[in-house]
Design brief:
This protein is of the alpha/beta class and about 475 residues long. It has a domain at about 30-210: Leucine-rich repeat, LRR (right-handed beta-alpha superhelix). The chain has helices at about 5-25, 190-195, 365-370, 425-460, 470-475; strands at about 30-35, 40-45, 70-75, 80, 90-95, 105, 115-120, 140, 145, 150-155, 175-180, 205, 225-230, 250-255, 260, 275, 285, 300, 310, 330, 350-355, 360, 385-390. The longest helix is centred in the C-terminal third of the chain and has 35 residues, at about 425-460.
Length: about 475
């Protein structure tokens, strides 16, 4: 019995020691190190219940070559304040701090990470006030702060309403900026100034930011911008401000917006666009004439999952067919039931998606699928089927056979030149009679107009005073 208190004491010591070890790990975490070779190292500090940034790294990180790549991950921890990170060797360094509780970032937080090209701060509690240019300033030298190598910055899923106008002062190499899922609502003046200062920006994600318009000058100076995502916002039309970057923009994503139609103004001046996606727009009903005409270099078009899209004008691609560039067209999961046979040159496509629509399998669709070769463009396992008429319901459109489809006869006879010898006597008589009737009608009309003119002239002629009776003049 005397040994029982001793056993309890041992258990308590073990628990205290374990608890102490866990608390110590929060400040000096035991991270998982993966070294592929001297040029690639991954330091995984994720899911370690860390609350503070460590003051030093494991010794193994110093073995990486100066030209090597380093990935450091801290996601799914409990970090609130980002303090200054210790120095990391390597040429290209990526740091991931997403999915913490970050609400503060100290000045010079990344000063020691000279080669940091990728920074992920998404899914935290960062506000616009927290984001300052001082966060990204490099080492202080010769009276000024140097710039850092940052190329990709992910600020998605935070609490940002606005950006500081000088935020990107020390990040001249920034090419990809993700602001998605922030309550921005309005691109105010200082935010526009901040964006326009990132002159090397190539990718901009503004999806799910609750904006409904973009000022015309918002992209001024962004002469390298290639990809914009405006999905899940409140746009009722495609922003006209995109025209400012029309010469460089190659990819546009415009999903989940309350637009009702697309027309010839929607993509004006976007002549270098390569890929366009307009999907999941609940209110989109119609694509009008010449909608895609400005897109002279378009290769991939995704018009899918628009549950109310019922009509695409047969001239939607007007002007493009002479110099056809489209290779892939996806029209899946809309509310379409018919397409015009001359909508586009079906045989020039490489991939065509049409599943999930209520197709009326008529002569036009049969012509598109068989005669024009669209049936060979479907991906395996993605062949659309008929919804109506009932006799074809559920049958793949490539399997239908319509016994009789009327076609226009385009075999016209050669036109013959006209000569007087082709005219019969009755034709001559009728022609003379017609000319005489026209001449007689013109003569009668001329005489009538002449009489009316003389009558009006006589009525309006003044009476000479010299002809009035003398007694009338005296009176």
């Amino acid at each position: 019995m005397a040994q029982k208190p001793f056993k309890v004491l041992v258990i308590l010591c073990v628990l205290i020691s374990t608890s102490y070890g866990r608390e110590g790990n929060k400040e000096n975490p035991v991270c998982d190190i993966s070294i592929r070779d001297t040029d690639n190292l991954t330091l995984n500090c994720s899911r370690k219940d860390i609350t503070t940034i460590p003051t030093s790294w494991p010794a193994e990180i110093n073995n990486i070559e100066q030209a090597g790549d380093v990935l450091i991950t801290f996601f799914y921890n409990n970090i609130v304040n980002v303090t200054q990170l210790p120095e990391v060797p390597g040429n290209k360094i990526a740091i991931i701090l997403k999915s913490n509780k970050i609400s503060e970032i100290e000045n010079d937080a990344f000063r020691n990470i000279h080669g940091m090209v990728y920074l992920d701060l998404s899914n935290n509690s960062i506000t616009g006030e927290v984001l300052r240019s001082e966060i990204f300033q490099g080492p202080y030298k010769d009276g000024i702060y140097s710039k850092i190598a940052l190329e990709t910055l992910n600020l998605g899923h935070n609490e940002i309403h606005s950006l500081d106008r000088y935020l990107f002062q020390y990040t001249p190499n920034l090419t990809r900026l993700y602001l998605n899922n922030n309550p921005i609502e309005t691109l105010d003046h200082v935010t526009i100034l901040a964006l326009s200062s990132a002159v090397n920006l190539e990718v901009l994600d503004l999806s799910s930011t609750e904006i409904d318009s973009i000022p015309l000058n918002a992209f001024r100076g962004l002469e390298k911008l290639q990809h914009i995502d405006l999905s899940n916002n409140k746009f009722v039309t495609v922003p006209e401000s995109l025209r400012l970057v029309g010469s460089t923009l190659k990819y546009l994503t415009f999903n989940k917006n309350p637009i009702v139609e697309l027309n010839d103004d929607s993509f004006m001046d976007l002549s270098n666009l390569i890929e366009l996606e307009v999907a999941e727009n609940e209110y989109l009903e119609e694509i009008k004439r010449s909608t895609f005409t400005p897109l002279k270099n378009l290769r991939v078009l995704r018009i899918s999952h628009n549950k109310n899209l019922r009509y695409i004008n047969h001239n939607a691609f007007r002007g493009m067919k002479d110099k056809w560039t489209l290779k892939e067209v996806y029209l899946d999961d809309n509310h379409l039931n018919e397409l015009s046979t001359d909508l586009l040159p079906w045989n020039k496509l490489e991939v065509l998606g049409m599943t999930g629509n209520n197709w009326l399998c008529n002569c036009d669709l049969n012509n598109i699928v068989t005669s024009q070769g669209a049936g060979t463009k479907f991906k395996p396992g993605e062949i659309p089927y008929c919804a109506e008429p009932m006799k074809f319901s559920g049958i793949y459109v490539t399997n239908i056979t319509i016994p009789f489809c009327p076609t226009l006869d385009h075999t016209f006879a050669t036109k013959k030149g006209f000569s007087l010898s082709d005219m019969k006597p009755k034709h001559v008589l009728w022609s003379i009679f017609g000319v005489a009737m026209v001449a007689a009608f013109g003569l009668v009309l001329g005489l009538f107009i002449n009489k009316i003119t003389l009558y009006i002239k006589y009525r309006n002629q003044p009476v000479p005073y010299g002809l009035l009776p003398s007694d009338t003049v005296n009176a």
